[in-house]
Design goal:
Largest sheet: 8 strands, parallel, barrel
Order of helices and strands: HEEEHEHEEEHEHEHHEHEHHEH
Strand content: 15-25%
CATH architecture: Alpha-Beta Barrel
Oligomer: single chain
Shape: globular
CATH class: Alpha Beta
Number of strands: 12
Distance between the termini: 40 Å
CATH topology: TIM Barrel
Bound molecules: ligand PBG
Radius of gyration: 20 Å
Strand order of the largest sheet: 1-4-5-8-9-10-11-12
Number of helices: 11
Helix content: 25-40%
Number of domains: 1
CATH superfamily: Aldolase class I
């Protein structure tokens, strides 16, 4: 009670504030999402994501080495597959010489200590741009799960440290865990996108991979953004099925969910600070309406304060450079 407690005593100067600071952002909080395309010496900026590129393998490998030097310990990989390799089975997803498999091998060769987490979902490989196999206009669950298991095993064979299913099919974590065990990959982990919402914040990502759904939307598998309890159910279920890390996605508009999930599970919680969140900060900063670096650090710190143990963010490199200063 005032004046016994004058709360401002703990805010008097920089030193005092540093002493009582509760949340401190570090470079090892980050994972960096990367877009990979075919070809050589290619680096194309995504128009809706200034500073983020789709790169060919050679330049990706070089970039990963640089990220490692900055203190970033993990990369999340997404590939842009050419249209002629897309179908409704997703079979290119488990081609042992596919772009993702080549990328995993090349990155682990060049920077073995970097934790490599390929995305597991069919949308980049689907003619329909959906995360599953389509039958009569429906996304069918169990056949999709079988495909995701094959995909995960092929990522493990290529040398992935973790696989990261982002599809939201039911039962896929358990099926993937079982597949990895049976194929002698007991140490390959699973980071599941456990509470992934059907959000309008993914637009720039879909531009980057040219993976927008060809019909309908993703609301029969991704979660309704009106729901909170369901996120806890999803996260608990994924942990039970064998997820080593569970993810909440998106971040900034879902920090209540991050806290709920953090309180409910006993595994690390990751948060995906998604493409649309990145684009909004970039756009406002470009207009001179906000201070880019300050807003970036505030948002990332807020995600950590909400309960994130790990943050997948397009800001990772810029934030690492700033934090290393
Ligand atoms: C699809 C996938 C998406 C993202 C990651 N994996 C898009 C979607 O669900 O349509 C979005 C990430 C971002 O917006 O940064 N499996």
């Amino acid at each position: 009670m005032y004046p016994i407690h004058r709360n401002r005593r703990l805010r008097t100067n920089d030193s005092m504030r540093a002493l009582v600071r509760e949340t401190i952002l570090t470079t090892s909080d980050f994972m960096f999402p990367m877009f990979i395309c075919e070809g050589e010496n290619i680096q194309i900026e995504i128009p809706s994501m200034p500073g983020i590129y789709r790169r060919s393998l050679d330049l990706t490998v070089r970039e990963v080495a640089e990220l490692w030097k900055l203190g970033i310990k993990a990369v999340n990989l997404y590939v842009k597959v050419s249209d002629n390799l897309k179908d409704n089975t997703g079979k290119e997803a488990w081609n042992k010489d596919g772009l993702m498999q080549q990328a995993i091998r090349a990155i682990k060769d060049a920077t073995p200590e970097m934790i490599v987490m390929p995305d597991v979902a069919l949308d980049p490989y689907s003619i329909y741009g959906h995360d599953g196999i389509v039958e009569n206009g429906q996304i069918i669950n169990d056949a999709t799960v079988d495909a995701l298991v094959r995909m995960s095993i092929s990522h493990a064979e290529a040398g992935a440290d973790f696989v990261a299913p982002s599809d939201m099919m039911d039962g896929r974590v358990w099926a993937i865990r079982k597949g990895l065990e049976e194929n002698n990959f007991p140490n390959v982990g699973i980071m599941s996108y456990a509470a992934k919402y059907a959000s309008s914040h993914y637009g720039p990502f879909r531009d980057a991979l040219d993976s927008a759904p060809g019909f309908g939307d993703k609301k029969t598998y991704q979660m309704d953004f009106c729901n909170r309890t369901e996120a806890i159910k999803e996260a608990l279920q994924d942990v039970e099925e064998g997820a080593d890390i569970v993810m909440v996605k998106p971040g900034i508009a879902y920090l209540d969910i991050v806290r709920e999930v953090r309180n409910a599970v006993h595994v690390p919680v990751a948060v995906y600070n998604v493409s649309g969140e990145y684009a909004m900060v970039k756009a406002a900063a470009e207009k001179g309406w906000i201070d880019h670096d300050k807003v970036m650090i505030e948002q990332l710190t807020s995600i950590k304060r909400a309960g994130a143990d790990l943050i997948s963010t397009y800001f990772a490199k810029e934030a690492a450079i700033l934090l290393n200063k």
